Amino acid sequence: MSDYKIIFTGPVGAGKTTAITAISDTPPVSTDEAASDMTRSRKAGTTVAMDYGVLQLEGGERIHLYGTPGQERFDFMWEILTAGGLGLVLLIDNSRADPFRDLHFFLDAFRGFIAEQGVVIGVTRTDLGGPGLDAYHHELAGRDLNPAVFEVDARERDDVRLLVKALLYSLDPGLGA
Amino acid sequence: MKPAPARTPLKVAAYGFAPRLAQTLRLFFQGPCGGRCQLVPEEQAELVLVDIDSPEGAGRWRLTDPRNPDRPLVAVALRRPEPAPPWFLSKPIGSQAFLELLDRLEPRLRDTSASALTAPSAATTAPPDGSRGKSRSFRQAARGARTAKAARTLEAASFRHFIRSVPDADPGDARQRGHSTYDPRRHLQGHLQQACARAAASGKAQRLRGPWRDILIFPDTGEVIADLDEARLRSMTVIPVDGYGQVLLSELAAEEAEALRGASAGTPERQETFLWKVALWSSRGRLPGDTAWETPVRLRHWPNLTRLVLTPHALQLAALWVRRRCTPLEAAAALQLPRPAVFAFYSAALAVGLMEFEPGNVPASQPARPSGRSLARGLLGRILGRLRGA
Asked: Which domain range does residue A60 map to?
């Protein structure tokens, strides 16, 4: 069995658990616990270990979907998680005080992985205000990056699937050929 | 009632049904319905049954499916809701009632004539039970919900329907190239682009008046309000406007703009979303006539494809054109895609200002995967297939 992975990351409450749930073939294993201190204002529970889901492929092959813990104090796990990863799905909560700080934090944290593989960015909670996608593209251009950036409702399976498909085509535009 | 004789089964999806009920439906289709329809994933379905008694389906019947507005949604419930949905089946679903519903729906679904491109007739939009008085409020609710969602998808079959009349001309033959081009200025698209440009330049709202009702452009919110439904808008994009009357573009004073914003029956849409779909529908698989076929282009950045009409192969084309500069014909050849699909995407991206012609300050795209360490294309393709079919 392969151990290929797609990694979902982003700040607390950005929708990683929801997104994995939206596309996983099995009920995702989630390790949400009651949130404390800084995360309490964002969501009732937060992921302290990781989320895990599976995409079943024909022939029994499986793609593992891993969600990183949303709290920075668990970042020692991220390097372990990304080993064997196909690419990164970065979810940014647009309603947070400074979403670009989050954006740069995660792009820095996964810099090596992104350079080796690829990244797509899903911007969530855009209905609550915050910067537009053009501002995200501007921020990314400053880093010499031009990944797919979509508005995403993490509860919508089609949105999440489109984001993951964009990641795959980013890795190889000729996939469908 | 006896099932109809053998024919291509109608593809039906079940939304909001518990797995056990969905399995029962499958058996129902195979047995009492005589194989006249088959249960398929929603992405492949020609019509969708929605269990509106379920939490998932509760709000769904109010919507014309935003990702496939022409596909009927059939509400299934113990009691008929108010306002009445256009298509309804009461529980428990009986074979006779179901087959009668198919009799009404199937001619419409199987209709591949050009008339399907035009606004639906009253017969297809009015509630089948004759409660026509309720249809307007339903359509208004549906339109509002559609716009709130804003995502638009044309499934492959629907898209082919748009572009099938466009010959895949020999690009080496200048005369044949003419068949693969259109002039946006002769269509609603050109007038709309002009209005949007004026709104952006002046910072003032614009009104575009023509054979359609008013189209209002508000630069302060980046929104467009069109007082016409989706089907009529689609029809308007196809027909050159210079053939049927005058088009007037006028600038609105602030008070007038606010008054019209409040009075319009239309629902605000983002300018980019609106312009993208108008260009796509106008193009119908053709390139703007002034396109320099030999000029390589690239995308400034990915379109926000979760909130735009998503055409087949849009993801591939975006991925390619963000990564490297090439002509539409080169893109079609590189990805082995039908040219009309490439031309339609190009036209829409060009209309919203995403195409870049000269080398500029576009950031380097994501690094190509090192070939020595690249994953087998087969694996990525299998994941993609799984996501398509999920």
From this structure: 3-175
Number of domains in chain A: 1
Measured between beta carbons, the chain A residues lying within 8 angstroms of B386 are 55-58, 63
Distance from CA of B6 to the nearest CA of A (A): 31
End-to-end CA distance of chain B: 35
CATH at A138: 3.40.50.300
Cα separation, B316 vs B323, in Å, equals 11
Give the mean model confidence (pLDDT) for residues B370-377: 46
User: Across residues B158-174, what is the average pLDDT?
Assistant: 58
Tell me the β-bridge partners of A47.
A32
ipTM of the complex: 0.88
Higher pLDDT among residues B277 and B371, named by residue: B277
In angstroms, the CA B165 to CA B114 distance is 10
What pLDDT, in 10s, does the model give residues B115-157?
Answer: 332 223 222 223 333 333 333 333 333 333 332 332 334 444 4
Q: CA geometry: angle at A107 spanning A14 and A119, to 5°?
A: 80
Give the DSSP letter string of B233-253.
HHHHHHS-GGGS---EEEE--
Closest residue in A to B372 (Cα) is: A116
- From CA B130, how far away is CA B109, in angstroms rounded? 20
Instruction: Verify whether the Cβ–Cβ distance A168 to B301 is below 8 Å.
Output: no
For chain A, say whether B318 makes contact (Cβ under 8 Å): yes
- B73-77: strand order across its sheet: B37-39, B10-15, B47-51, B73-77, B88-90
Strand, coil or helix: B155: coil
Nearest to A121 by CA among A99, A152, A144, A89: A89
B312-346 pLDDT, tens digit each: 899 999 999 999 999 999 999 999 998 889 999 99
